[in-house]
């Protein structure tokens, strides 16, 4: 996701026009997904009266999982990401990211082949060879010097190509937004990469942890804005994830995402 530009704060009156407030001071989300704060401007815990999106029938449970994820993030993941950013320079972080991306290229090539794209698969194999040799183990991405460009192909996309439907939206503990197809694809994708079988189990776990840390570091400001700049951070995160995944699956004509879109905000008239 691209960094999200700050949203202007919306007035309490506009939020109250779209929501109802329960007698015990808890926050109620109406069918349109909008939320209200109390008189002091605080945002109490969300209580969902009905799903706000037809693709999200388990919204009440998903919101509780997101609350858990935010608690884990506040306690451990975000502080680790900030420490990673402050202790390791951008040049070194980029080299680490390039190596991690390079190690995933065999899985990208395999998925391109399974999706009926043999030329893309061959391009990715060539990219892997170039970056692993001339790029010093993948530390340097030769795309900037005319090498084959990086593609994003995973088994979730492959299952989509084969016609498997999305299924309901899911908020997965620690991992975040997903759905049954994408969750299955994430698991299978790890087994598809032949490199993983030559790396000790502990090293693979460490590699996954570093990948997660790198992703979190690159999205510190983005997630801060989602949490602090949205009337309903859950609905906004769901919307952004779905838009981003639709772009990767080719269901929209552009990769650009309207990051200013806040599903919790009143619709423009």
Automatic annotation (TrEMBL):
GO biological process, any: intermembrane phospholipid transfer
Lipoprotein recorded as keyword: yes
Key words, A-Z: Lipoprotein, Signal
Domain of life: Bacteria
Keyword set includes Lipoprotein: yes
Family: Belongs to the MlaA family.
The name this protein goes by in its record: Phospholipid-binding lipoprotein MlaA
């Amino acid at each position: 996701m691209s960094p999200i530009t700050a949203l202007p704060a919306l007035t309490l009156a506009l939020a109250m026009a779209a929501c109802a407030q329960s007698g015990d001071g808890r926050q109620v989300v109406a069918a349109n997904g909008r939320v209200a704060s109390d008189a002091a401007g605080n945002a109490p815990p969300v209580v969902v009266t009905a799903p706000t999106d037809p693709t999200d029938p388990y919204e009440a449970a998903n919101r509780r999982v997101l609350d858990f994820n935010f608690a884990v993030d506040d306690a451990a993941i975000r502080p680790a990401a900030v420490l990673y950013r402050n202790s390791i320079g951008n040049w070194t972080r980029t080299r680490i990211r390039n190596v991690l991306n390079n190690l995933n290229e065999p899985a990208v090539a395999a998925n391109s082949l399974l999706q009926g794209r043999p030329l893309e698969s061959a391009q990715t194999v060539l990219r892997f060879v170039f970056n692993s040799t001339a790029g010093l183990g993948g530390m340097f991405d030769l795309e900037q010097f005319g090498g084959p460009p990086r593609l994003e192909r995973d088994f979730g996309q492959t299952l989509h190509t084969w016609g498997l439907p999305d299924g309901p939206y899911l908020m997965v503990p620690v991992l975040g937004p997903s759905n049954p197809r994408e969750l299955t694809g994430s698991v299978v994708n790890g087994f598809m990469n032949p490199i993983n079988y030559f790396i000790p189990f502990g090293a693979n776990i460490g590699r996954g942890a570093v990948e997660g840390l790198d992703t979190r570091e690159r999205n510190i400001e983005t997630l801060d804005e989602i949490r602090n700049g949205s009337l309903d951070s859950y609905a906004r995160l769901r919307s952004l994830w779905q838009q981003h995944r639709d772009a990767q699956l080719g269901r929209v004509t552009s990769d650009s995402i309207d990051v200013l879109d806040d599903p919790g905000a009143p619709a423009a008239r």
